[in-house]
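Q: Could you fold this chain for me?
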Amino acid sequence: MAVNLSIFKAYDIRGVYPEEINTKAAYLIGRSFVNFLKKENPKIVVGRDNRLSSPALFKSLVRGIIEQGGNVIDIGLSTTPMLYFAVAHYKFNGGIEISASHNPPQYNGFKIVREKAIPIGEKTGLKEIKNLIQKLEELKFQKLRIFKRRGKIVSKRILPEYIKFNLKEVDFKEMRPLKIVVDTANAVPGILIPEIFKTVSCKIYHIFPKLDGSFPNHPPNPLIKENLKTLQKEVVSKRADLGIAFDGDGDRIIFVADGGKIISADLITALVAELILKNKPGEKILYDIRSSNIVKEVIEKNGGRPIISRVGHSFIKEKMRKENIIFAGEFSGHYYHKTDYFCEAPFFVLFKILEELSRTKKSFSELIKPFKKYFHSGEINFEVENKKEKIKKLKKRFQSGKISRLDGLRVDFKDWWFNARLSQTEPVLRLVIEAKTKKLMEKRKKELIKIISS
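A: Sure. Below is the predicted structure, expressed as structure tokens.
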């Protein structure tokens, strides 16, 4: 049976196991990636999350890489940022993380990077890898290029070095013994928490720490508010200073303040931008098109240079490298840092916040309060036909505003704005609205939903 090529998405490879993504696909992805790199016996890092299907996919992927002449550096159970770190820090030729990120347990997938942990997306290599798989199937698995020798597999433990790397700039002297509730949703980020807080004086309450690829307590998607309920309750009951939740592969972090309120990721971007710019004025800070206007205002107020970007880690990382941007934040809870090889840096953000809480002796709620200037709808998803036609309709209806086509359609007015765009990962139209008053935001939200749904 031929490989189901619908598993190739805009940023990664993903599907239901074993109906859509399976061991045959893994084997051919391994072989095709070696060919794609166009290097003799390239060194490829392979990591995996703790999904139930990950061991089987790992075995087949590694077999494909080795048979095609690639050398595998097996880092075992790892978060995606750990894989990125391994590729960039040790200067390997590429890497593949076996994970379906925040998706339900029946899914799995592959996130692929080249040297320096540069992401490979649809336009930067995934399409070519997909074509190589088709060629391999046509040739009935004969080698596209025959190397002089098979590759080898070696194991490499990177966790101690990764933790040392994340703690190297943390100011431990002033760190207060803060109380933190951490939810890792039975997913692979659970391996990091006991280790990274060993040398930190904070009191940690770790919920759902046991690795279980069936995710029995809740799906590892912290963007769904339902999945944060236990964390919120624990923050309140333990009288904790804050709570944090990771997604399934540990590249996203969502914050809950004292009192149990979820903090929007763009407000975290604004806070961290302010902290960075205090010591490094003039630096560029990037934020995505869905983020609150407060982000731009904070960057400018603190002497920084705001850069707005379309959504998606591959676009953001490319722009960061090209323009030497020090920090970036996405509305989805992804944060990127130049020192972290322009990759996701959840612990950089966490420790920046812990340092500020310790220094100011303020509560997290007090720290975030100045950034709560506007009223934001959050992301609203629509499963509608003719998504592009809907965007054309919105453009015509709101043509008197300032129009941007950076990512879908963004229209700015004096006291409100909205963005409507096609998702690159799901078959939906996504909408966000922000206004100076709650009443206006609700009014415009109702109006836009009516147009899109009609």
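A (continued): The CA atoms of residues 252 and 334 lie 5 Å apart.
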